[in-house]
Amino acid sequence: MSLPDPASLPLHGIKVVEFTHMVMGPAVGAILVELGAEVVRVEPIGGDSTRNLLGSGAGYFPMYNRNKKSICLDLKSAEGLEIARRLCDSADVVVENFRTGAMDKLGLGYEALAARNPRLIYCSEKGFLSGPYENRTALDEVTQMMGGLAYMTGPPGRPLRAGTSVIDVTGGMFGVIGVLAAIEQRHKTGRGQKVSSSLFETTVYLVGQHMAQMAVTGQPAKPMPVRISAWAIYDVFETKDQEQVFVGIVSDGLWQKFCQAFVLTELGADESLKTNSQRVLQREALLPKVRELFKGYTKAELVPILEKTGLPFAPIGKPEEMFDDPHLAASGGLGATTLPDGRATRLPILPLEMNGRRPSQGGDLAKPGEHAVEVLQTLGFDAAGIADLQTRKVVGE
User: Fold this and answer.
1) C-beta of residue 310 within 8 angstroms of C-beta of residue 257
2) Range of the domain at 302
3) In angstroms, what CA-CA distances link 128 with 21, 136, 353?
């Protein structure tokens, strides 16, 4: 797949300044940079602590900070703050995800920056939008628990967070949607605005279908592991070689294709199983038969048969298996990246095609402060001035 000229990307020419850490804020910049924006990440002297997280946090920085420029500033110093303000003076977008009020205390809040740059779009990623909870500290997992997602994910009595930072990333996506809408509105008004998205409201939006289910049926939604399925066959099944495959039969036509593919002549001809509603009522009798059927095949034998039927199906995959997924390899879904220790790897890129092409294809991670000289030169600093700032630790080297 050919790659587009960077100048042809939709956000080419848009300048973004990031004051972020962890996942939610960096996810905003990660999306914008893949769409062609220039993103300058302002880090503390020595670099963002997210770079050094262990365990489940070890992948945060490499996943959400590729292709960004880095400058390290001492924001506790007047000079460091003034450099940050000057960066924002020429920016189209500022992104921040620090505790409510933190940027205002530094003089880097929306009102202060917009007074200097009225066209500025200021994206604030928070735990909660305006309201009684707005000053609470929140994390992805906190709001999954509060907003009903953990309740819906785990079995009854065992709330379980989703297996990725789904609210951080989705909240970042909503932030990008707001930024793009504000850019479009700026074309008409000439002015920027503040855009906010949040973890809690994002969680509630995602469980909105279960709220609507309650409104429609009058019955509270049950956690997904014990829900009443809308379809009779919609489950994970074990194969002969102890592998697992999800299979869903979600229409009457697919039921017939399933019966034909596995030569289930009697089931296919059974008038009491012709419709989905009929099959749902007999789900407890049908499922054991299907489980026994699939137990007679290895995963390697079962997958080609399911592929031919057109049924929705999926072998149960693990994240590490995605590195060798043939579809991702063929479609360019993973982009080359060099990790901070010099090792090469491939990580997912924006899951989007525009004009039949991926907007970007991988990219590297900046070292802390790697672009300080370049960024300061754009602000008019000469070599001597930059060296002086670095010597006095206003700017990281």
Assistant:
1) yes
2) 229-318
3) 17, 8, 32
